[in-house]
Amino acid sequence: MRHPVLRLSDQALRSADQAIGFLMQQAVENADCISLAAGLVDEQTLPVDLVRETVGKVLAESGSGSRLLQYGTTQGPEPLRRVFREYLAELEQRTDRLSDLPLSQLFLTTGSQQLLALLAQALFNPGDICLVAAPTYFVFLGVLQAVGADIVPVTADGFGMCPAALRETLSRLEQEGRLSRVRLVYVVSDFENPSGVSVSAERRPQLLSLAREFSRESRIFLLEDAAYRELRYDGVSPASIWSFDRDRETVILAQTFSKSFSPGIRVGLGVVPQSLVKPLSDLKGNEDFESAHLNQHVVARALKDRTYHQHVQRVRDNYRIKRDAMLEAADREFGGLPGVSWYRPEGGMYVWMRLPDSVPTGFQSAMFRRATQVDKVMYVPGELCYPQDWPARPRSEMRLSFGVQSPDGIREGMRRLASSVRWALETGG
Amino acid sequence: MRHPVLRLSDQALRSADQAIGFLMQQAVENADCISLAAGLVDEQTLPVDLVRETVGKVLAESGSGSRLLQYGTTQGPEPLRRVFREYLAELEQRTDRLSDLPLSQLFLTTGSQQLLALLAQALFNPGDICLVAAPTYFVFLGVLQAVGADIVPVTADGFGMCPAALRETLSRLEQEGRLSRVRLVYVVSDFENPSGVSVSAERRPQLLSLAREFSRESRIFLLEDAAYRELRYDGVSPASIWSFDRDRETVILAQTFSKSFSPGIRVGLGVVPQSLVKPLSDLKGNEDFESAHLNQHVVARALKDRTYHQHVQRVRDNYRIKRDAMLEAADREFGGLPGVSWYRPEGGMYVWMRLPDSVPTGFQSAMFRRATQVDKVMYVPGELCYPQDWPARPRSEMRLSFGVQSPDGIREGMRRLASSVRWALETGG
């Protein structure tokens, strides 16, 4: 039968054609390639035995087993939030166990992605402004696009988002009469996906101060996405941006157990300003009542038993070897190539590589076709990591992941990729 | 420090002050009452041992354990969707295993609530219209309110939403020039929360036909919420409304394992028209990438092993006893009271009771205060189950749940409630 016109909401229309969709499609079409594109975690690191044992434990505990399978609460059961607060206190090196942080400000979500999405829903009407580092996490760009946000890029370098650029951007928006539309500054503080860069210790309080200083016409929040926080392979962790937020009314801290433990278990941890607790809880209640709290119990129990901590140490040891393999291969394969450069990340899962401007890397580029069709290697085109409607966005970068491949796979992938890059440099892209 | 004005999105503002929030608040404030209000499931029925054993099985299977903890896919892993399709085929009594239903049309969600919320996000701009039975599931009213939908009630009786009333309402909207704004008809087909009523076999195809007939200016979908479908204690299940939708382009079927298995495990199953697959998948991808698929594996494995089927039989046997206890107590305690009537549900978890119009039952009513303060029993005021802005909504009804209390608790609760009702009838409310 013939059906009349399908009318979708504005939000649904804006949710179509997102970078992640194109990327997934390319991954399917190029399944024969060595993927340096996939943002998955290494399956070898996944805590199969630990999860099995821990599920057994939490379900066996007398009196609590059936509670775990009952409805819980929208933000996650309070006793669990207490455990997660202690874990956060450890990360923050707070000897007071963060006992002054009300449990009401903690949210357990379906990965940190859900908190990012809820926050976007809570803050943005179409045309409201979000400032993001350039480049930044492209999935959040899709979330912002879906709510109709106006995404404004802020220059970032090897030390993260530049405070001077943030000030300049906010001042410009103020001159344009648009400051009242700014809702959020989005910062991936540690080993950013895609750049691998962490915001330096010096810049952290500066970014926070700027969000506050420009909160003149309306409140500007700062979303600190610390998804990769625990995946540090060298050096010392700087204090979180959140730790500088004394009255805890500016920074939303988003963390996840997807990278350090398991993505499939879908447990994220957020800390939000008191003023956002009810709006976010109302939205989350509508969305799913609550996330799977059996899973939250499993992570909480692993935290309490400190089996989690042992596990994360193994995860770090595994990724460190792979990060080193990628950087060594980069030196070896790309070291002599003119105009090719990359960051040396201290953690996370990504190496960000710049090619000369004459070599575009997008899905439609000769370079991408050469890599996927001839050399059989796939990467994430860097241009996905900038606002789609930003004409000045760089188009000659690549996000390279060392998450999924073995060290040998990484070396072979990098060898193949260098072959494509050499070809592109010789043919002029 | 002083913070400037907090600006929230329209959606966040509309998400505040919802019925479920008020109800939870009352539940907390009246924790000393026997609750005939809570919509939780009976903890005695929760499959603690089964879940523990099944998690052990799925994580032990060689090669698959780590896959379960990795990222999956937005709609749930395809092999699992195949298992869920076979389960649906059983419910639908289809001997062909529904093999003509593309797996792409199946969604595994965080409870059915997430599908309801995603669908509302996908279809409604502010001012678009949803038709609902009066009364209906109040949580979905909140979801509709959050997206700014215009909620139009349609008369329902002991056989569900009245097709004549649906036709009349759609015709009226057409005369008013508003037919093009109608997006959805929402129908809880089995043992509706709150009324306990099922849509009769005769009416099912009629409601579907009307949605199609009036899809003149734009497509009108029908959301069949079958959350309680498997909790039938007497009689025979009629075919789903979805089963009459030959080209599967009108009905969205929403089911859940929250009632039959475990709410905490958060697994819902949806079947959606092909035209909605991509919009819903885009929205869900933004929202959480995917629901916890370890949990989906557990339910799928219990389905394959048929341990699920044994479990549901035990759940039904347990609730049947409690349903009977509530109906017997209703007969005994309320049988002689003038103007008091109730439905006799064949399944689900609720008995819907009407008092004379002279006895309002809302949170602010004398009856509610009497019940919670003096007789120490709590119910859900019926007025929550109608659109908040509908002036003509009935105000003298109650939703009584037999889900949580033991049979003795139900009898005592009903005795107490009858005492309040008698008081209200004598004092004139």
Secondary structure elements and pairings:
Two copies of one chain form a homodimer.
Chain A: H1 10-15, H2 19-29, E1 34-35, H3 48-60, H4 65-69, H5 78-91, E2 106-109, H6 111-123, E3 129-134, H7 138-146, E4 150-157, E5 160-161, H8 163-175, E6 182-188, H9 203-213, E7 221-225, E8 251-256, E9 268-271, H10 274-288, H11 293-305, H12 307-334, E10 341-342, E11 350-354, H13 366-375, E12 377-378, E13 380-381, E14 397-401, H14 407-427
Parallel strand pairs in A: 1-12, 3-4, 3-6, 6-7, 7-8
Antiparallel strand pairs in A: 2-9, 4-5, 8-9, 10-11, 11-14, 13-14
Helix pairs in contact in A: 3-11, 5-11, 6-10, 12-14, 13-14
Organism (chains A, B): Planctomyces bekefii
GO molecular function (chains A, B): pyridoxal phosphate binding; transaminase activity
Protein name (chains A, B): Aminotransferase
